[in-house]
Amino acid sequence: xxxxxxxxxxxxxxxxxxxxxxxxxxxxxxxxxxxxxxxxxxxxxxxxxxxxxxxxxxxxxxxxxxxxxxxxxxxxxxxxxxxxxxxxxxxxxxxxxxxxxxxxxxxxxxxxxxxxxxxxxxxxxxxxxxxxxxxxxxxxxxxxxxxxxxxxxxxxxxxxxxxxxxxxxxxxxxxxxxxxxxxxxxxxxxxxxxxxxxxxxxxxxxxxxxxxxxxxxxxxxx
Amino acid sequence: xxxxxxxxxxxxxxxxxxxxxxxxxxxxxxxxxxxxxxxxxxxxxxxxxxxxxxxxxxxxxxxxxxxxxxxxxxxxxxxxxxxxxxxxxxxxxxxxxxxxxxxxxxxxxxxxxxxxxxxxxxxxxxxxxxxxxxxxxxxxxxxxxxxxxxxxxxxxxxxxxxxxxxxxxxxxxxxxxxxxxxxxxxxxxxxxxxxxxxxxxxxxxxxxxxxxxxxxxxxxxxxxxxxxxxxxxxxxxxxxxxxxxxxxxxxxxxxxxxxxxxxxxxxxxxxxxxxxxxxxxxxxxxxxxxxxxxxxxxxxxxxxxxxxxxxxxxxxxxxxxxxxxxxxxxxxxxxxxxxxxxxxxxxxxxxxxxxxxxxxxxxxxxxxxxxxxxxxxxxxxxxxxxxxxxxxxxxxxxxxxxxxxxxxxxxxxxxxxxxxxxxxxxxxxxxxxxxxxxxxxxxxxxxxxxxxxxxxxxxxxxxxxxxxxxxxxxxxxxxxxxxxxxxxxxxxxxxxxxxxxxxxxxxxxxxxxxxxxxxxxxxxxxxxxxxxxxxxxxxxxxxxxxxxxxxxxxxxxxxxxxxxxxxxxxxxxxxxxxxxxxxxxxxxxxxxxxxxxxxxxxxxxxxxxxxxxxxxxxxxxxxxxxxxxxxxxxxxxxxxxxxxxxxxxxxxxxxxxxxxxxxxxxxxxxxxxxxxxxxxxxxxxxxxxxxxxxxxxxxxxxxxxxxxxxxxxxxxxxxxxxxxxxxxxxxxxxxxxxxxxxxxxxxxxxxxxxxxxxxxxxxxxxxxxxxxxxxx
Lengths: 222, 776
Hints:
- The structure holds 2 protein chains of 2 kinds.
- By secondary structure, chain A is mostly helical.
- Chain A is 57% helix and 2% strand.
- Chain A has a two-stranded antiparallel sheet.
- Chain B has 6 domains: 22-209, Cullin Repeats (5 helical Cullin repeat like, Up-down Bundle), CATH 1.20.1310.10; 211-297, Up-down Bundle (5 helical Cullin repeat like), CATH 1.20.1310.10; 326-413, no CATH class; 512-584, no CATH class; 587-682, 2-Layer Sandwich (Ribosomal Protein S5, domain 2); 694-774, Arc Repressor Mutant, subunit A, CATH 1.10.10.
- Helix content of chain B is 66%, strand content 5%.
């Protein structure tokens, strides 16, 4: 189990994925199935359950593209707590929730989930979840390098700001970690401020990091 | 009683007078009146019977002929006026009808113009007198006129005069009249003497006539408009003339004269209704249009006046400029620029000074520079106080402008807080010696005034503390009263919090003095013998600006250690739960030194004492490096100590190498041949001076650290109170609350808000991105 976090930290789990009511009679059977399935991926040397290597296999089997947002999407839907790991308890709970019995069944759900992401609100939930999920557990903030990778991953080509923002951080290295406030504010920032930074003003309440970004853009005249 | 006959008396009706031919009566009556009127006009009224005229008019009016009479009278008068215009006025026309401005063509016309006016005036006088008489004669009719909706006879007379004479359509009387008047005025403006009564009479005549459409007097509609036009033209030219030919003070004097002249003329021969208008013209043309020109006149303009303290000229300028709307604003802005210029000069000189001197003299010079800076600013301030007083009539808005300018350039100098503190320091150490209480008060008050201008008061506080600490510990204050006086002034300015710690420092000194007395008694009663007389000052760490942790323990000789331990025993017996840390860098010691030919008592710093005592056991001298080992005094401090002992005025030690620099292998020996006049010598070592750049940075970082705490405290305080607040409002409120101490950098404030969000004191409001909420 990941170390105990402050109550507020668990806010990232803002929305639980939809649950499907389950029937009692099939519970016992399903449990057995789930366990077997779990063992297929688990790393037996540790008691952490599924470790990164097994995780990769699982994802690939599910048809998720490891280089894309899919891996995070799946983690979110399964309510996982730590990037790259699935504990037995998490596995059992998730599979029960989704009432999934086979790999194919699971596979078929992935496209539905992907489609849901078109909804801004759904995407926002995913984005906010990613912070707690992906940062090093025990720390309050996320390493800036991890953040950069994730942003590229999450946004891909969704937003013109992101590649520039990533470039800015790589270039200037203003911070070593990204805190929760900066992470969540970024989403609002992309939505509100146009790419050409029109109307942006450092007297607004955006975090100082964004002020520096705007300043850097203006200097480079990009 | 017998012969009474009864007679029948009959009452017969009254015989009525038959008035059949009313018209006939009218003509007869009117003839009388008409002849009479003419006689009156030709000044033959004496021959008339007033009673007859009155009766005639009365009868005619009574018989319902009033209106007809009125109209007929009117036409009689009108005819008269026309004839008299032709016969009397037109011949009196003079020259051309254009208003000339050239003197030559005017001169010839001058008298002619006046005489024309007089002619008109005569006519008017006669006419009004006649009209009065006529109206008396027609008194009964006059009374009844309102019934017919007709103006009274006198009014009718005035209107006729207006239309037939002044505004005559046949003859250009108006033109001549107005032109003559204007020409006369022009002549007077050019310096000639004219007959003012002529104009005055003409003006009063025009004032009595009323224009039917505007209901204003004919003076206003016919004369005044033209008058104002020509005056504007005149003063436009005058403006050019004055600005090209005269320097600023002379220009202003002449403008003043013109203003006086116009006012006088208006009072004496024009109507007062024109006064504000003509004044406005003069003010606009001569003053308002020339504000910048006058102020910027080379060699004599505002700058020169300010530099050379030309109070009279400045006063005149103030009075003149205050007449026009933008005058004072412009003047203020120019003065403000001047102050800024002077201030920047003063600042620049400081930079130049500190850059040019040799490094070794730098420290000495720079204190002097600081003092010089302060004195120059004080001189500048005194000057402008005087200007405000004498020239600007203590105008509050001027004071505000001056203050803003001072504030600006004082805060542009990054070292101003330090300089002011050094100035006070210097005064409290030496400068105030011998001055009376009032003089002392005066100097301190002036410094407080400068202090008010500082934006970053917390920086000043830091320096003041440092300097005060040194003064107190080395007993350099020239007067305790003065110190306390300064403190109470600061308290009045900034409140209790500011001076809290400073007062603590004073307190510590007092308590230490008491403690020392007790300690001495304690030593006297103790059994152990001590070679030295220790005197200890105990400082409460939070009050004093020391780096406690930064001072490594220096190695003291055993005798000194014994004394220290004795004190510790004594102290802990009295106070428990306290920790004592010995500060070697702040103490002093009196050392008895025996040289070859003389004995002296040397008053030195503790470090110097440690160094000197080493030589008791090292007759061959010591290297700097060795001394470093033996005493563990921090290297820069050791070097400074050695310099003060070997390279300063009194050379107690000899140094092997030349110059002030100290290399590790430099050998120092006691200067056996040392002599001096005084038995007791004070070796200076740690004086307050202007900081080096590294020291500045250090101080600045401490200040910034303190500020971050202050900002966070302010934010939490405000948010706790308001619960929710919008970003910009929060920043504004924080700035306001901290303004008494310093001006917070908005970026720093923003960063502090973010830090507080991270530490979960605040959160961003979920409804409004721009607002924050307090988290309990």
